[in-house]
Amino acid sequence: MSIDALIAYVLQRLPELWLRTGEHLMLTGCSTLAAMFIGIPVGIFIYRTKWLRGPVMGVIGILQTIPSLAMLVFLLALLKEIGVIPALIALTLYALLPIARNTLTGLEEVSAEVMEAAEGIGMQEYQQLMMVRIPLAAPVIAAGIRTAAVVGVGIATLSAFIGAGGLGQFINRGLALANTKLILLGAIPAALLALMVDFSIGAFEWALRSERKKDKKRSAKSFMRRPALMLPVALVLVGIVTNFTKPGWISGPQASLENGHEIVRIGSKNFTEQLILGEMMARLIEAKTDLIVQRRFNLGGTMICHGALVNGEIDLYAEYTGTALTAILKHAVMTDPEKALRYVTKTYHQRFDLQWLKPFGFNNTYAITVRKADALQNRWSKISDLEKSADVLIAGFTAEFSERPDGYPGLRRIYHLHFGDVLDFDPSLMYEAIRNKKVDVICAFATDGRIAAYHLKPLKDDRKFFPPYYAAPVIREEILKVHPELGDVLSLLGGRIDDAEMQHLNFEVDGKKRSIAEVVEEFLKAKKLL
Amino acid sequence: MIKLTRVFKTFDGGQSYAVKDLSLNVDRGETLVLLGSSGCGKTTTLKMVNRLIEPTKGIIEVSGKNVLDYNAVSLRRQIGYVFQGIGLFPHMTIEQNVEIVPRLLGWSTRSRQERIEELLDLVGLPAGSFAERFPDELSGGQQQRVGVARALAANPAYLLMDEPFGALDALTREALQQELLSLKNQLKKTIVFVTHDLHEAMLLGDRIAILHDGGLEQIGTKEDILNTPATQFVKDLFSIRRSGTWK
Questions:
Q1: Which of A116, A122, A214 minimises the CB distance to B104?
Q2: Which end of chain B is more exposed for a tag (fewer CB within 10 A), N or C?
Q3: Same domain, A130 and A173
Q4: Range of the domain at A172
C-alpha cells in the first residue's frame, strides 16, 4: 500500500479513531483513578495493620492472575450488563495490585532514622504518617500508579470484547475480518497511547518532586511545572468529554443516542458473517424506518450475545437454529430443520420473551474441513473417512466448538474421532492455521468464503450429526410491540440469501478485504431492497 | 532539672539490662555528658528522658514531674533533640525543617519566620542563602547545624544530644564542638550530651557521667574524675586517654 493510500485510509477513519482513543483514555483514566482511591488507602491501612498484609496482598495478587478475558466474562455474568461498567471494574481490579503494593513498599522503605526523628521531635502518629512517611513514600507510590496506568492501556484493548469501545474495537474487528490494517489502526495508537500515559504521569511526578521548589522563578523548569501537573488530568478529561459528547461529526457506527429519537441496538458475534448480517439488518432498518440504529457488534460468542439480548442490552441479533437449540436451550440435536425452527421459536417465546423472525435462507452448519490436497491424496470425502488417521491429525477448533455438545464432544461420540491434538483458535485465525498447515482439520462454517479461497474441502456429514444452522433475526418482543415495523422490515430479508450467496458475501469481505458496509450496500441494491 | 531515680531498662524480659539501677541529676543550665562505649546504655538513657523508650522500672522526672505523667507528644515538644544520624526530613527545605516544632505548636507564620532567621544566624547558616535549600544540598556539618537549630526552635529548656558529631570528619567536629561550647554559654540550656569520645566529653561537659554495662561508674566534674577515679574501670579509662576514644 502506498503512503498516500495509507494516509487516506487513516484520514477516513480519523473521526472514529478520535472517538475510540477518547473511550480508551476514559477507560484507562477512570479505572486508574478509582484504583488510586482504593489502592492507596488500602496500602496505608495494611501498612498499619500488619496481620492484614498477607491476606489482603494475597487476594489482590490472585485478582491479578485471573486472565483478562476470563475476568471480563465473569463480570459480565455477575453484573448482567455489557459495556463500560464491567470493563471499568475489571481494569480497576487489575490496577489495584501495583498501586497497593507500591504504597505498602514505599511506606515500609522510609528510613527508620527519619521516622525516629519525626517521633522524637513530638509528632503525633498521624502527623508522622501525613507529614513525613507518606510524602517520602510518594515517588514509589507514583511509580506504582504509572505502572498501573500503562498496563491499563494494554488491558483496556480487551474491553472492546464486551462492547465497552476503545481502540480494542479496531483490533477485534480486524481480527474478525482478518484485516491487518484494521488491527494496526487499533494497535499502533494503543501503543502510542501507552507511551503518552507513561510520559504524562512521569511529568506529573516530576512536577510534584520537592526539589521543584528550588527551581528559579521564571526558569524553564518552573514554567513547565504547571503544564506537567495538568497533563494526566487533561488526558483523562479529553477521554471523558469525548465519551459523553460523542460529537455529531463522528460518522459510522455508534454515532447514536440522539435525543428524542428512538434507538434500536443491534448486536453480533465476532465473525464476518455475523458482522455482515448485523450490518445488513442495521442498514435496512435505517433505510426503511425512523429508528436510530446503534451497532453493538463483535460481542464475542453466543452466550454473550444471548445474555445481552435477554438482559435488554441489545434488541436483536442474528442467531442460528442449531446453536439456539443445543448451546442455549441445551436440547438434543434435531436434524429436521423445520422442526428445529418450530421448537426454538416456541421455547424462546415462552422462556425469554424473544421472537424468531423469518430465516435468511442459508444453512451455515459446521463443516469438518480439510485441505483439498490432503483430501485427494487420502481419498477423504466423508467425515467417517477421518476415523483411522484422526490420531495423527491436528485439529483447530473455535473454543466454542470444542465445548458445545453439537461440536467436538458429539463428533467424538458419533464418529469416534479422537484427534492427536486440538488447538483453540479465534474463528478467523482458524482458517489461517489450516492454510498455513499449522492444523489439518478445522470446524469451518459452511458459508465461509475462505473454503473456496483457501482451497479447502468440507467433508460430507455422512452420519447426519450436525444439526441445521439456519440463521434468523432474534428480537425482543418488547421492542417488537412498540415498533412492529421492525418485524416487517426484517422479514424483507427472509429467504433472500442462500448458501452460495452467503459464501460470496463472506468472501467479498474476508477474501477481497472490502468493507462490510460497501458489500452490504451492494447486496441490498442488487436485491432491490434499497 | 532532669532526675533519674533507680532506673532499669530491659529489652528481653529481664535476662539482661541495658540500663541498671541508674540514678543521676542534671541540674538546671548544666551540661551533663553521658560517656561510655557502645552498648553501655547511654543512648537508651537519653531516649527514656523524652519517652522514645519507656523505663522498665524507676522514676524519671523532668521539671519535677514524672515523665510518664506527661503526654508523650507534648513532652517531646518541650525537649529539643539532636539525633545521631541527623534525621533531617529530606523532603522539606531547611526552613521547613527548622520551623517544624513551632508549626506543630501552632505558632503564627510571622513568629516562625522570625525564629527561622534568628536560629539560622545563630548556627552560622544565613537564612538568605540556606533557608530554601534541601538537606541533601548541604555538607554533613551544615546539616547537623540545622539539626541543632531545629532542636532549639521552640526554645525548649532542655536539649538532648545523641552523639551529634559522631558521623562528621575530625575538623568539622572540632569546629562544631567549639560552636556548641559558645552556644551553651549563650543559651543556658539544660543539656544531656551522649558521646563515646573522651576528648569531647572533657571539652563539653560541666559534669561527666561514665556508664559501663548499663550501670553508673562515676559522675562528677572532669577534675573529680581525673583526680579521684571511683573505680578501676574509670582509672583504666584515663590510662588510655592518649588514644582519645575507644569503642
A1: A122
A2: C
A3: yes
A4: 28-182
Closest partner residue to B87 (CB to CB) among A117, A211, A213 is: A117
In angstroms, rounded to a whole number, what is the distance separating the alpha carbons of residues A411 and A367? 11
Give the confidence band of A222 by pLDDT, cuts at 50, 70, 90.
confident
Q: Are A406 and A480 in contact (CB under 8 A)?
A: no
Share of chain A above pLDDT 70, in %: 94
Q: Is B98 helix (H, G, I), strand (E, B) or coil?
A: helix
Q: Which of A115, A121, A212 to mutate to test the interface with B (most CBs of B within 10 A)?
A: A121
**Positive or negative torsion for Cα A422, A428, A429, A434:** positive
Contact residues, chain A, for B77 at CB < 8 Å: 121-122
Q: Are B9 and B56 in contact (CB under 8 A)?
A: yes
Identify the residue whose cell numbers are 439456519. Answer: A470
The Cα–Cα gap between B41 and B58 comes to 15
Q: Which residues does B224 contact at the CB level (< 8 Å), separation at least 6?
A: B218
Please give the torsion angle defined by the CA atoms of residues A269, A271, A273 and A276, in that order, rounded to the nearest 10 degrees: 70
The Cα–Cα gap between A166 and A160 comes to: 6
DSSP A460: B
Q: What region does B188 belong to: left with phi over 0, alpha with psi -120 to 50, or beta?
A: left
Q: How far apart are CA A76 and CA A81, in angstroms?
A: 6
- Asked if A142 contacts A112 with a C-beta cutoff of 8 angstroms, the reply is no
d(CA B53, CA B71): 14
A106/A205 Cα distance (integer angstroms): 15
Q: Which long-range contacts (CB under 8 A, 24 or more apart) does B237-242 make?
A: B237/B198, B237/B210, B241/B198
- Cα A446 to Cα A509: distance, rounded to the nearest angstrom: 16
Q: Are residues A338 and A370 in the same domain?
A: no
Given pLDDT bands bounded at 50, 70 and 90, which one contains residue A257? very low
Domain assignment present for residue A228? The answer is no
A276's grid cell: 455482515
Which grid coordinates belong to B130? Answer: 540556606
Place of cell 424462546: A348
Q: How many domains in chain A?
A: 3
B76 vs A119: CB contact, 8 Å cut-off? yes
Mark which of A150, A182, A214 sits at the end of a domain.
A182
Residues present in chain A in total: 530
Is residue B243 scored above 70 in pLDDT? no
Identify the three-state secondary structure at position B208. strand
> Taking the model in full, what pTM does it have?
0.69
Claim to verify: residue A159 and residue A278 sit in the same structural domain: no
Q: Which of B73, B136, B150 to mutate to test binding with chain A, by most A CBs within 10 Å of its CB? A: B73
* CATH number 3.40.50.300 is the correct assignment for the domain at B1-78+183-247: yes
A132 closest CB neighbour out of B74, B89, B132: B89
A477 CA to centre of own chain: 27
Q: If residue B30 lies in a helix (H) or strand (E), which one and from where to where?
A: none
Judge: A113–B134 Cβ closer than 8 Å, yes or no. Answer: no
Write down the ipTM of this complex. 0.88
A59-111 pLDDT, tens digit per residue, is 988 988 888 878 887 887 788 777 788 889 999 999 999 999 999 999 999 99
A308 and A395 together in one domain = no
**C-alpha cell recorded at residue A367:** 463443516
Residues A174 and A56 grouped into a single domain = yes
Q: Which domain CATH number covers A123? A: 1.10.3720.10
CA B113/CA B132 separation, integer angstroms: 12
Q: Does B85 touch chain A (CB under 8 A)?
A: yes
Chain segment B101-156, per-residue pLDDT in tens: 999 999 999 999 999 998 898 888 888 889 888 998 898 889 988 998 999 898 89
Sequence-distant (6+) residues with CB within 8 A of A226 are: A207
Q: Bridge-partner residues for B81, per DSSP? A: B160
The span from the CA of B10 to the CA of B30, in Å, is 28
Check which CATH number belongs to the domain holding A406 and give it: 3.40.190.120
